[in-house]
Design goal:
The termini are far apart. The chain has 21 helices and 15 strands. The chain folds into 5 domains: 68 residues, no CATH class; 202 residues, no CATH class; 47 residues, no CATH class; 43 residues; 134 residues, no CATH class. One zinc ion binds next to loops.
C-alpha cells in the first residue's frame, strides 16, 4: 500500500511538492526549525492537533502550532507568478523561441542558441519558419503579429504609456489620443505583455550580478475593484505583495492574489471540486483558490474593514484628533488598528465578493510563492535583511523559502511597525527633535556621524522589550529615532539575535523600514487612476464611481506591472537622475518606452 519501513502513512498530511515543503517549524531558535513533518503517524518532532480544516502540527520542541498548507498549491502559485502563460503567448507571437512551456527550449532564444532549432523554410510572406529540436513545435519568426493589434497610431504608444502612468483616465485618454476605448484596452494588453517580458528578461540577469547585500521592505497593498451592478454593490478586493530594495528602490513582485486564467464556474462543476468539498483546505485539488463554498464558509464572520474604518474615523472626530487626508495613510491606520487589537486584517468580508471572471487566490499562497520567486532571483546575493510589515504567517513564508540562509546568518528578518495615527506636524516635530539630538552628539564627539549617533541612542532601547500587540508573546522594541515618514517605530526580530552585539541589533533596528514599498504604494495610488480608491468608505462608493475603476480585476494586475516597469526602468529620480534598475545594476540608464514595447528580436 505504498507504506515504507512498516510505518503507517498519514494521508492527511500534504506531501512535499516540487522541492517545496512548508509544513515544518518556522521558529529560527527551535531545534526543529525547517525540519519537515513526516508523512507517518509517528513523528518524534511534531504532533497533530485539531480536526478537519483547523488541523495543525504542533512542534514538540518549541510548542508552536502551524496550520497545514498544500505544497502543491504553492508550486502552482509559483508557476503563475512566473507568468509562464503570458511569456508563452509572447514567445508564440514573436517566434523568438519555442513557446511550449513544458519544453526544455521554452524561452531559449534562437538568437542565443541557434542549434536548438532547425530552419524549415519560409512562409508565403517571406518569414523564416523554425522547428524546435526538443519538442518538434513549428513556428514563424518575427511574423510581427504582436504589432498588428496595436498598429493603429503606433507612434502614440509611448505617449499613451506615459499617460496611463500619470493618472489619465478613460474619457480624457480617448479625447487626447483620439483612440477608441477598445483600442486603448488592446494597447494596454500589449503594453502589459511587453513589460512582463522585458522585466522577466532583465530580472533573469540578477543571479549573475555581484551583489553583496540587500535590505528589503515587504508589504502589501489592497485594491478595490468596482462593482458592476447596482443590485449587488459588494466589491471585489485584491491585494498585491511587493518587496522593495532600500538601497536602489527597485520593486520586486507586486504579486496580485488573482488568477485570470481560471474559470471558477468550470472548476466548481468538476469532479475534483466535488471531492474537495469533503477535504480539509490543505488537501484540496483547488487549495489555492477561493471557491464560492470557501467564501460562504469563511468570510461571513470576518470583521468588515469598511465598518471598522468608519468607526475609527468617528472616534477620531469625537476626540478631535487630526484625520489624515491622504487615503494610503487612512489605510495604514486601519492596518495598525487591526494589528494592535490582534485582529486578522482580512480583505475579504461580508462586504466583498469573489470576482466574476478568473479566481481570487488565498493570499497566503501568493505570499509563499512571492518569496520563493524572490529566492530564485536573489540566490547569489551574499546577505539579505528583510523588513516585514506584520502579517499572519509571513515569517514562515519567508523562512521556508530561504532554507539554509538563516542558520548560516545570510538572512536576517524583522517586523517593523510605525505609528500612523500621528499627524504630519507631530511627525515633523519628532523628526526635528531626533535630528537635533543626533547632531549634538556628533558635535560633542560622542559619535562620528549621524548614523552612529542613531545607533548609539538606539542601543539603550534594544534591551527593553515591550508587548506591542494584545494577547501575543512576540517581543518588540521601541526605536527612539523618528523620521517624518516613520515615527514611533517598533521592531521585532524574527531571526535569532541571541549572539548579536547590542550595536548590531541597534544598527538593524535603525535601518529597518517599510519606506521603499510605502513610497511605491503611494505612487500607485497617485498615478494609477484605477487604483486610487482604497478599501474604505462604503458610503462613498456610488459617488466616487466614475466608470473607470476597473471592472475587470485583471486590469489591476496589468496596470500594476506597467507602473512597476515604468518606476523601475523608465522614470529617473529627481534626486540622482537614476532609475532603481540602474542603481541595482539591471540597466545602464533610463530605458526608453519604445525599447520596451519594440525590443529587437534578433
Ligand atoms: Zn519548533
Ligand atoms: Zn520546444
Amino acid at each position: 500500500m505504498g507504506q515504507n519501513f512498516g510505518q503507517e502513512v498519514d494521508c492527511n498530511i500534504p506531501p512535499a511538492f516540487d522541492g517545496i515543503n512548508v509544513n515544518c517549524c518556522a521558529n529560527p531558535t527551535c531545534k526543529n526549525f525547517l525540519v519537515a513533518v513526516k508523512l507517518s503517524v509517528k513523528d518524534k518532532n511534531y504532533s497533530l492537533t485539531g480536526k478537519g480544516a483547523s488541523r495543525s502540527i504542533k512542534c514538540r520542541s518549541c510548542g508552536k502550532h502551524y496550520n497545514l498548507k498544500s505544497n502543491r498549491a504553492i508550486a502552482e502559485e509559483v508557476q503563475r507568478l512566473n507568468k509562464t502563460q503570458v511569456l508563452a503567448h509572447i514567445a508564440a507571437q514573436d517566434g523568438t523561441s519555442c513557446s511550449n512551456s513544458s519544453c526544455a527550449n521554452f524561452g531559449i532564444k534562437i538568437v542565443d542558441f541557434p542549434h536548438h532549432y532547425r530552419k524549415i523554410g519560409f512562409t508565403p510572406a517571406g518569414n523564416q519558419r523554425y522547428q524546435c529540436q526538443s519538442c518538434g513545435k513549428r513556428f514563424t519568426f518575427g511574423s510581427r503579429k504582436r504589432i498588428s493589434h496595436p498598429q493603429t497610431k503606433r507612434n502614440e504608444n509611448s505617449m499613451l504609456f506615459k499617460m496611463l502612468c500619470n493618472k489619465s483616465v478613460g474619457q480624457r485618454l480617448t479625447e487626447i489620443t483620439e483612440l477608441s476605448q477598445p483600442t486603448i484596452y488592446r494597447k494596454i494588453d500589449m503594453f502589459y505583455e511587453r513589460v512582463v517580458e522585458f522585466m522577466a528578461r532583465r530580472e533573469a540577469k540578477l543571479p549573475s550580478l555581484d551583489i553583496d547585500w540587500l535590505r528589503l521592505s515587504v508589504d502589501r497593498q489592497f485594491y478595490n475593484v468596482n462593482w458592476t451592478s447596482r443590485k449587488d454593490q459588494r466589491n471585489v478586493v485584491l491585494s498585491a505583495i511587493a518587496s522593495g530594495d532600500r538601497q536602489s528602490g527597485y520593486i520586486f513582485g507586486m504579486d496580485v492574489d488573482y488568477d485570470p486564467s481560471i474559470n471558477l464556474a468550470e472548476v466548481q462543476d468538476s469532479v475534483e471540486f466535488k471531492k474537495d468539498l469533503n477535504l480539509p483546505p490543505y488537501l484540496r485539488n483547488f487549495a489555492r483558490i477561493w471557491t464560492d463554498h470557501d467564501y460562504d464558509q469563511n468570510v461571513a464572520n470576518k470583521p468588515n474593514m469598511g465598518a471598522i474604518a468608519d468607526s475609527l474615523m468617528d472616534q477620531m472626530i469625537a476626540q478631535q484628533i487630526d484625520i489624515p487626508l491622504a487615503l494610503p495613510e487612512i489605510e495604514k491606520l486601519l492596518e495598525e488598528y487591526c494589528f494592535k487589537n490582534g485582529l486578522e486584517l482580512s480583505a475579504q468580508s461580508s462586504d466583498t465578493k469573489l470576482p466574476t471572471n478568473g479566481a481570487l487566490i488565498h493570499l497566503e499562497y501568493t505570499m509563499y510563492a512571492h518569496f520563493i520567486k524572490l529566492r530564485k532571483l536573489l540566490n547569489n546575493v551574499n546577505r539579505l535583511a528583510f523588513y516585514l510589515d506584520y502579517e499572519s504567517g509571513i515569517d514562515r513564508a519567508l523562512l521556508t523559502a530561504f532554507p539554509d540562509w538563516v542558520d548560516n546568518g545570510r538572512l536576517t528578518a524583522l517586523y517593523v511597525s510605525a505609528d500612523k495615527t500621528l499627524g504630519t506636524h507631530k511627525r515633523q516635530a519628532l523628526d526635528a527633535v531626533t535630528k537635533r539630538k543626533l547632531e549634538q552628539m556628533v558635535k560633542k564627539g560622542e559619535a562620528r556621524d549621524l548614523l552612529e549617533a542613531a545607533i548609539i541612542t538606539t542601543m539603550d532601547y534594544i534591551d527593553k522589550p515591550i508587548q506591542l500587540r494584545k494577547n501575543r508573546k512576540d517581543i518588540w522594541y521601541s526605536i527612539p529615532i523618528h523620521r517624518v515618514f516613520e515615527a514611533n517605530k517598533y521592531v521585532c526580530f524574527i531571526t535569532d539575535t541571541s549572539d548579536w552585539k547590542a550595536e548590531w541589533k541597534a544598527a538593524r533596528a535603525v535601518d529597518a523600514s517599510l519606506r521603499t514599498t510605502d513610497s511605491f504604494f503611494n505612487l500607485a495610488r497617485r498615478r494609477l487612476s484605477s487604483l486610487e480608491r482604497p478599501i474604505l468608505g462604503r458610503a462613498n462608493n456610488g459617488a466616487l464611481w466614475d466608470g473607470y475603476s476597473p471592472y475587470d480585476p485583471h486590469q489591476v494586475e496589468k496596470m500594476i506591472q506597467i507602473l512597476r516597469c515604468y518606476y523601475n526602468y523608465v522614470l529617473p529620480s529627481k534626486r540622482d537622475g537614476m532609475t532603481p534598475a540602474q542603481r541595482i545594476g539591471l540597466a545602464k540608464g533610463a530605458v526608453e518606452i519604445r525599447k520596451i514595447l519594440y525590443p529587437r528580436l534578433s
